[in-house]
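Researcher: We plan to redesign the surface later, but first we want a full-length starting point. Tokens attached.
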């Protein structure tokens, strides 16, 4: 297999050369079906169960029989909290006990990650920089740096190491720039953003984490 190479930039947009990438992570053939499977599972696992209806054992009242069993001419009832009554319990309604999570094979998940990263490289959407040379957490400094890099004015996902980094704080006022810790990198965020930006240190960490 041919070497997988990407251009290496400094944070001012100057080309410094090329970096060879691991083909096991950045040179994998894309299978849309596997990617879709992982994306769907990720969305299902992130789903919160909000709707909850009360059954007859949960609603208030109804401890006393509303009227005697015989002699009234009315239908017999044992509780005003029966699902037959207004204000009674709900039959087969949605509850918090529902579980939408889906189990995913770890190897398949890693393979899907490699496919998406490989697609970024193949389409020149991976921007590799020497380091995040941002002296202050200033939005203007980050915006200026990104206008000199290939991801200029495009939706960008920046891989970071710490939430306290200047680049994380500087990006908060840039609507097209999103940051993510290397350990939380996932398919949905990768696919929502056109470009992926990371430095050499984090390239190594991502490679170690997902290989």
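Model: Full-length starting sequence:
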């Amino acid at each position: 297999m041919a070497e997988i190479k990407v251009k290496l930039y400094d944070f001012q947009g100057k080309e410094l050369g090329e970096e060879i990438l691991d083909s096991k992570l950045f040179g994998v053939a894309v299978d849309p079906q596997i990617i879709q499977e992982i994306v769907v599972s990720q969305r299902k696992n992130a789903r919160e169960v909000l709707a909850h209806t009360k059954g007859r054992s949960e609603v208030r009242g109804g401890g006393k029989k509303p009227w005697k069993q015989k002699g009234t001419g009315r239908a017999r009832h044992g509780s005003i909290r029966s699902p037959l009554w207004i204000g009674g319990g709900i039959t087969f309604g949605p509850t918090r006990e529902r579980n939408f999570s889906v189990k995913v094979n770890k190897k398949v998940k890693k393979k899907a990650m490699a496919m998406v990263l490989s697609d970024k490289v193949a389409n020149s959407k991976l921007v590799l920089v020497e380091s995040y040379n941002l002296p202050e957490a200033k939005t203007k400094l980050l915006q200026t740096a990104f206008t000199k890099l290939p991801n200029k004015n495009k939706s960008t996902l920046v891989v970071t190491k710490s939430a306290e980094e200047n680049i994380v704080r500087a990006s908060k006022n840039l609507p097209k720039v999103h940051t993510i810790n290397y350990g939380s990198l996932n398919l949905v965020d990768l696919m929502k953003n056109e470009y992926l930006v990371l430095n050499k240190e984090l390239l190594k960490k991502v490679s170690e984490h997902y290989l």
